[in-house]
Backbone:
């Protein structure tokens, strides 16, 4: 990984998802990447299960505003999510938005075994670098 780059784990999850669901999606997506922070839609960033994951991983949370989701180019597409959130994947869109301009997905979203949560990783560009 280039110096100055950071990796953000973005999450999409159902209201009834547990912290264990979020952790499972995270573990499936992370591989051996050193994650710097967690991101999700702003209306879910303060939920108990997301705060529990953040505390367990000792990683900061970046809430992503709804208007920041739509312009993100996602690799996967859920019609249900597109209708509700204006993006094909909340996990991918929040990871990209939180990682900043020019960020790229490391892999498409991974879904928890119970299908209640998804996680995707995005890497920011190192400071001063352009695509």
Residues:
């Amino acid at each position: 990984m280039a110096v100055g780059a950071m990796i953000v784990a973005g999450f999409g999850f159902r209201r009834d998802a547990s912290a264990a669901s979020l952790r499972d999606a995270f573990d499936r997506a992370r591989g051996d990447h050193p994650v710097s922070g967690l991101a999700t839609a702003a209306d879910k960033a303060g939920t108990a299960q997301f705060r529990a994951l953040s505390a367990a991983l000792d990683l900061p949370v970046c809430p992503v505003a709804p208007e920041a989701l739509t312009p993100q180019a996602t690799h996967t597409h859920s019609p249900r999510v597109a209708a509700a959130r204006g993006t094909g994947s909340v996990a991918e869109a929040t990871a990209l938005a939180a990682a900043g301009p020019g960020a790229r997905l490391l892999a498409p979203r991974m879904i928890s075994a119970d299908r209640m949560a998804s996680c995707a990783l995005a890497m920011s560009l190192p400071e001063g670098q352009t695509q």
About this structure: The chain has one domain: 7-123.
